[in-house]
Structures are given as C-alpha cells and as structure tokens.
Design a protein that fits this description.
Length: 220
C-alpha cells in the first residue's frame, strides 16, 4: 500500500486500519479510537453494539505488536474495561487544565487511557517524568481544532509517546485523526506510523508534520 505521507520517519496511510494495521510492525501502540457511545461527531460509525468487537480486535493487535499500549476511552465505558482489555491493565489519567462547564452533574475534567505492557520492555522510556497522569493544555483547543471533532492536546500526547517508545522506536496509531500522536513522535525523535480512514484528516496531519515549528493548535 502506498503511503499518503512518508517523511523523516513518520508515515501516514489513508485507509481502514483493520486492513492496514495487521501488516505493520512497531514498538508501541498509542491511539484514540471512537468511544462506542453513539457520539454523533465521531469519525467512524460510533455504534455501541459493534464497539466490543472493535476493541477486542484492537487489543489483539496491541498484543501482536508488543510493548506499551495506550488506548483512550470514555468514562461511560469504564464498567466494561475488564471485558475488553488484558489482565494487568491500568488507567492513565489524561487531565485537562480547563473542564467542560456543565449546569448539572460532574464536570468532564479528565479522560481514562487504558494502558498495559505486552512486550519485553518492562519500564517506561521517558528520561524525564513518568507520571501516570498529565494535565494537558486545552485552552483554545476546539477553536483551533482545524476541523477535527475530537481534539487532543499535543503536550499530553508527547507525555504518553515519551513513555511508550524510546528514541528511534516506532509508535503505531491506527486512528491517527489529524496527526497529534504523529506530531508528538516527531517532536520527540520517535518514528511513527498512522492510519486514518478520512482523507481530509490525512491532509491536515501531513500539513502539521511538514511544519518545522510546532503550531499553537493541537488536535487529535
């Protein structure tokens, strides 16, 4: 399959990850898939009934790849994590410096990222801070989201990528969106391969990766 983008150790494939990912190898899996909660703005058909099958497939690929796996999830699914993820999974807290203000109920101030290690690498790869949480800068995130419905702060993705893969190793992101994981990998001197089913997001990701100076905007 011909890459949509391939430069300086970062590759993007435009296609369905279920067809592309099984042919790829890497050292870690870091991804933000649809949540399976019927969210109308999701890139994929976010069908709660089909979601368990998607998660089981994704976990099997993570086990095949080996190493650290970090998979963003929704709070609404926490009761089913034990069904989908392998023994020994834990939760990384992707916190936000500004929460969504709501008139009722608790504010959504952090997202769970399920993680585990399925390879020989038994320790984190970051040489700085290896906290199991990160407070990301989401100020202005949706205003600068460049057309993507599910923005992620790039500083949080740098923190996770820094833990998941050592310098020069390869991070795989089968739901690459507009390339935040890939941009984080480039900034940290990691290699990365992303897969994205929507071509418009591939184009956004390619433009972000072509920039030599990290932009203020940060998207998923």
């Amino acid at each position: 399959m011909t890459p949509y983008y391939d430069h300086a150790g970062i590759t993007i494939y435009h296609g369905d990850c279920r067809e592309v990912l099984p042919a790829l190898v890497g050292n870690a899996l870091v991804t933000d898939p649809p949540y399976g909660i019927g969210w109308g703005r999701a890139t994929w058909a976010d069908d709660p009934k089909a979601y368990p099958e998607l998660m089981r497939w994704l976990v099997s690929e993570g086990q095949r790849i080996g190493g650290w796996c970090f998979i963003f999830q929704a709070q609404l699914n926490v009761g089913r994590f034990h069904e989908w993820f392998p023994d020994g999974w834990r939760i990384f807290a992707a916190c936000k410096n500004f929460a969504q203000v709501r008139k009722t109920g608790l504010w959504n101030s952090w997202d769970p990222v399920v993680y585990w290690n399925s390879g020989p690498n038994s320790g984190p790869n970051s040489v700085t801070v290896n906290r199991d949480y990160h407070v990301g800068n989401v100020a202005g995130l949706f205003r600068h989201s460049a057309g993507h419905p599910s923005p992620r702060p790039v500083d949080t993705m740098r923190h996770i990528v820094g833990i998941a893969a050592a310098e020069g190793e390869t991070v795989l992101d089968p739901f690459a969106g507009s390339g935040t994981t890939l941009r984080a990998a480039k900034d940290l001197g990691r290699r990365a391969i992303g897969i994205e089913i929507e071509e418009r997001y591939c184009e956004i990701a390619a433009k972000r990766l072509a920039q030599q100076v990290l932009p203020l905007e940060a998207t998923a």
